[in-house]
Each structure stands twice: as structure tokens, then as C-alpha cells.
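Quick start: what a row looks like.
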Amino acid sequence: MRVIRQVQPLPGPRLPAPSQVPQKTRHAMSRTADILLTALAPAVWGSTYLVTTEALPAGYPVTLAALRALPAGVLLLALTRCLPPRTWLGRVFLLGSFNFALFWVLLFVAAYRLPGGVAATLGALQAMIVIVMARGWLGTPIRTGAIAAAAVGVLGVALLLIGPESALDPIGVAAGLGGAASMAAGTVLSRKWQPPVSALSFTAWQLTAGGIILLLFALITEPPLPLLSAKNIAGLVWLGLIGSAATYALWFRGVARIEPGTVSLLGMMSPVTAALLGWMILGQSLSPLQSLGAVVVLASVWAGQRFNQTGSNDTYEQRTSSLARNI
């Protein structure tokens, strides 16, 4: 008879079971993962300028924005099979207006009337506006370090994108500031109004509402869109499926989980990505000063998440419980 001896394991370090990992460590790991996932959204949004200029017809900004938002929202509605209740319709259309319709229209106005660097720098002010709005609407404390990090980030975007030929147009400046305020309001209110549904469903509601508003506005203000080429359709598919449906689901997921100041600072990843894509794909120059600006932006994002984390040691369960009371 063959005897099978039990093999004794070699001595070595024992890995702790998941339940043995300290709660503070689990919270830090979860928060880091949330930040990285949320940062993917503005990083992908940085491709919008490249796709718009290289793959879409010029002169139809509102119509193209509607085609970016509405099909993506309807597709997500079909996938999630979750419609907003009647009591939420007002909030959904208000959020869809702030996060998409009003924001995108003002963004296009600023882009047409201002150099791209100036428009992007005005948009970067969103981080500071979010901190102030979060104080008023959510009771989030204003931390000096977070304000300083946001201001440094704006400076980094200016170094990255503003050239010596930049000029200011009053209407363009007003549109740029209005767009930053619109997105800031949408971010803070999306944190305040958390429906008991998944981030994907919440994204579907807002994209659809914003797309409807944009479509109505486009029918009034713009001529009919010409026949689209295969390249145009590919650009719209990228902006709709990846640049809207997938990324905004990540964004609103992050809005629900991370401090508003941290989320808004992550938006500065967008101009960094846009500059890098212009350098790699379009052959645009990237001077040492612009490279310094990119480093400053990344440093401000890192510093901002550290400052916003200070004094916020509550667990994820406590945060979500607090959010539920605001519904």
C-alpha cells in the first residue's frame, strides 16, 4: 500500500486575510482606486479636441453635441432598463443642463471666440468654483491647501496652453467662466442628489436629458447636418460611446465617492492629455515651458487629493449613508 505523506509547508511570511487588513488601509486602497478610475474620464476627454478637429464637420457644434449625448444616453437607458421616477425629472433635466447642454454650448462659444489655451485656463477655474459651491451646498470645509492646489493647477494649465498671441474677448471670457460654473454646479449637485440607482443609470438619465435639450436648441439655431462620412461617424461613435457613456459613468461614480475638490482637480487631466495628443499625433510643438506646465498640473492634482483627504477619514459606508439622507 502506498502511503501519501502530508507535505509540511515551508516557513515564510503569512499574508493577512482580507478581514485582517486594517480598515484604514482598506479605505485608502479603495480611495486610490476610485481616484484612478475617475481620472480616466478627463484623460479621455482630452481627445475631444483632436477628434472634433480631425474627424467631425465644422460649423455644427450644438448638433454634434446632441449627437454625442442623446444616442449614448438612450443606449445606456436600454442597457440599464431604469427610467427616472417622475419626482426626479426636474433634478435630472437640471443636471443634464448643467453637466452637458449648458456646459457644452458655453464651451463651444468660448472655443470659437478665444484661443484654445485661454478657454482651457478659464475652464480650469472650475476646481476653485467647486470648492466654494461644495461649501455652500454640501457643507464641505474649505481647506487652504486645496484652494492653493487648484490655483497652482490653473497656473499650470496657463503655462501649458496659453501662447504669446492669446487675446481676450469679453463674450468669450464670459462664456468660459459660465461653462466652468455650469460644470461645477453639475458636479456638486450630482454629489448632493444621489438617486438609489447605479452610476450607469444616473449617467443615462443625465445624458438623455442633456441630449434632448441640445437637440431642441440645435433645431432652432443651426442648419441641417450634411451627410456624414464614415470618418465622421467613427468620430461620433468615439465621442458618444467612450467620450460620453463610459467616461461619464466613471465620472459620476467618482463624484459619489470622492471629495468634490479632488474630483474637480482631476478635470485638469484633460488639457494635459490634449497637449500630449497634439504633440504625438498632430506634430505640434511642446516647449520646455509647456512641459513645465504639464508637470505643475500633475503636481497640483496630486497635492489637491492629499489636501482634500486631510480631515476626511470617514469610511465609504459613512459617506454613502450621508448621501442617502440627501435624496
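That is the whole record. DSSP finds 14 helices and no strands in the chain. The chain has a mean pLDDT of 85.
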